[in-house]
Amino acid sequence: MPDTIKVKLKIKRFDPAEAGGKTWWQEYEVDVHPDSTVLDSLIEVREQEDGTLAMRCACRASICGSCGMKVNGGAKLVCKTRVIDVAPNGEQLIIEPMGNQHVVKDLVVSLDAFFAQINRVEPFLQPSFVPEAEYTATNDSMENLLTSMNCIMCGICVSDCTVLEVDSNFIGPAALAKAWRFTEDPRDSKRDERLKALNDEDGGIWDCTRCMKCVDVCPKGVAPMDRIMELREAAIEAGNTNTHGYHHTESFYKSVKKNGRLDETRLAIDSAGMFNIPRMLDLVPIGLAAMRKGKLPPLMPHKAEDHKKVRELYERVEGESK
Amino acid sequence: MYEHDVLIIGGGLAGLRAAVEVTRAGVDVAVISKVHPVRSHSNAAQGGINAPLTDRGDDWESHAYDTIKGSDFLADQNAVEIMSSEAGEAVLELERMGVIFSRGEDGKLGTRAFGGQKIARTVFVGAITGSAMLHVLFEQSLKLGLNVYEEWFVTKLIIEDDVCRGVVAIDIKTGEMHTIKAKAVIMAAGGAGRVFEPSTNALICTGDGLSLAYQAGVPLMDMEMIQYHPTTLARTGILMSEAARGEGAYLLNADGERFMEKTAPDYMELASRDVVSRAEQTEIDEGRGIDGNVLLDLRHLGREYIEAKLGYLQEVSVEFLGIDMAEQPVPVQPGMHYIMGGIKTDVDGATAMPGLYAAGECANVSVHGANRLGANSLLDTIIFGRRSATHAIEYIKGIGSHSKDESVLASEKARLQGLLDRPKGERVATIRDDMARGMTKGIGVFRDQASMEGALENLKNVKSRLGGFSIENKGKVFNTDLMFGLELEFMVDCAEAVVAGALTRKESRGAHFRTDMTERDDENWLKHTLMYKDDEAENGVRVETSDVKITQWEPVKRVY
Prior knowledge:
The complex is a heterodimer.
Chain A: E1 5-15, E2 22-32, H1 38-49, E3 68-71, E4 74-77, H2 83-86, E5 93-96, E6 103-105, E7 108-109, H3 112-119, H4 139-149, H5 156-160, H6 162-166, H7 173-183, H8 191-200, H9 213-217, H10 224-237, H11 244-259, H12 264-272, H13 277-292, H14 307-321
Parallel strand pairs in A: 1-5
Antiparallel strand pairs in A: 1-2, 3-4, 3-5, 6-7
Chain B: E1 2-9, H1 13-24, E2 29-33, E3 49-50, H2 60-70, H3 77-97, E4 122-123, H4 129-144, E5 147-150, E6 152-160, E7 163-171, E8 177-187, H5 208-215, E9 220-221, E10 226-233, H6 243-246, E11 250-252, H7 260-263, H8 273-285, E12 294-297, H9 303-309, H10 311-321, E13 330-339, E14 342-344, E15 356-358, E16 363-364, H11 377-396, H12 407-421, H13 428-442, H14 449-465, H15 480-504, H16 522-525, E17 527-533, E18 541-547
Parallel strand pairs in B: 1-2, 1-8, 2-5, 8-15, 14-16
Antiparallel strand pairs in B: 3-4, 6-7, 7-8, 9-14, 9-17, 10-13, 11-12, 12-13, 17-18
């Protein structure tokens, strides 16, 4: 193995001091140890090539959450991203600031929006009583919460969230994973209130489109989308059934069970609620546009050929879960 | 211009614990930190926090004695008594705030074994205890609506008639400089690990707080006491928690021997950190290492157990070295980890200067003496973070109005502009690396007169170059380049005090192990070293000493 490898970087720069802010791409080449991380390479750039490059980093051990940024289009914690894994043949690495967050300078984004989202979920324990010593709880219940407490608030899930890209009001994956940490905590007394708020709120648990992106990019195994799905289940179990989200889920369930395939027309109507006139009217232009493009689903559902098999699957799964 | 009754520098565990206390008292408070609080280095504490819980058959005197023995009898025993006797309740309070500590069968806090203690009294959250605590204290700060100057960098303390009255700081996001006046300032700015290379410490651990106090005339105590952690990951220097050994991991040399048997037959891998690090270094120096490392072997614990109890260690080992700990031992070596020394305080966090308090790693109370026990650093932060807050709240009752002095802001602006205006010179990183490598070489696991003098000569050379570095970035917004220059100056102050303390102490005690004076000398050196910045003195440092406070435990030979 050679003593060093050459790392080629193309970095998206931003200088707010220039009128209106100036954005440009800048290329660098540095020599680093073959085992180096992308962060090691960026530090080499900053210390030896260009002191004007702004970025955050601190622990170098994937625990402080400072160094989230995009590498070749996807957000990563660069301290735990080895160069050989992302550029095995010396390919140029494209480095950009995280997405869905306001860029302050170069690779530094503002944390304000991220922490505003966290603040929306009342992110602190709200117990109903104070014990003299500690709250007693099972070890399993505490280890369960590790999933979410592993979150280091790096913002990477927020960066690559496809919902936040189009709807900045979405509470977002990190904050919802944080909310889950309290609804699942046996010491918290506000589980029902929390679930109701997350269910009812605009931008709450039903706005996730289940694209899996946050699960893919999270560097700490928090799997925010899985937490959001668990929040949905818990919210329904707690009796929160009067929402688009619940109607959508229920319609999906029923139509596949009945026909062995999804009745998309029914799904749209059920999700909105048959008597929700404004929402129904919203659907009209979407329906017309779909019709023009020949994409309108059939108004009456066809049954799938093997729909009985689908029914059997339902019965087997539901039997097992009982 | 901003004003607060209490200003806390640092948003880690000590700072946030202090802030919670001041807020609860209804007193106006703000935290100022060069990073967002959840980025603080408290995150990196992995293994746990010591809590002698009396309802579980433990007693605080036992923890106090283990701490004092661990300190090689340099800790002030009155301070240790306070820390140990308040520990149980302080940890329970954290649990009640929401920390998800591991549980025993009975649903109460569970414990694991840790170094230098025969009783398993370390409570923990997997291998992310510091992070789990920091995030819960941050949750509490959100609940309380704590005012935080996030990403503000303190450049200078405002001192008026020898009383601390606030700070001057840069808002990193705008580059503007401001005065923040305060009736009391609590320094909770963390350690100075980057004075050494390599170090387990984050790049932000540059001794800012130590230097700011030292420049203001406040003494730094026992700075020669540098902890080398026995298990840092080969090449990367990343910390591998003592929890691994607490859960039963072995240390092996190249011949597959558990070499701790030779130096600590009773405690084995769980002897005090200084003892284990020296044993490892001896194996490596005598040719029984593997490429400068020894092996940390967890294989007998089994995959399931490793992943449940030490998940973060497995993550680091796999991702940074490609080693699955359930299949293969991990190469580790001693690495600079913690500085026992710090700003001298009393048990209430008060420093020699009215209006200035200190807590956490930047402070020296002293509870760690010559060697800190694992899982006592987190305890130190919450006990003395809270105590410094309580005392500062009392202190400000006697302070009428804020300082009227505006001159420090102007002089600091001029000083920083001077740095920016320098002609092109040496790079900050080059000087910093020379300093840090020289410190590791001279003030290592083992040291002697010649190595320490080498560190001093190296430092003289470094100091002579401080006037010649230049700042390439002339911009205002997020100018980290300027910050690194200021941090280098902070680190050099710390290095100066470390070297002066090391050259002064003519014995071996705890982490200060001299191969040319291998014995502890209680007759002459049961003393603290106190370093004062003094331009008149040799090398710019005046060194004094003070007696160690002994309450009930007479020093005895330290055997593990």
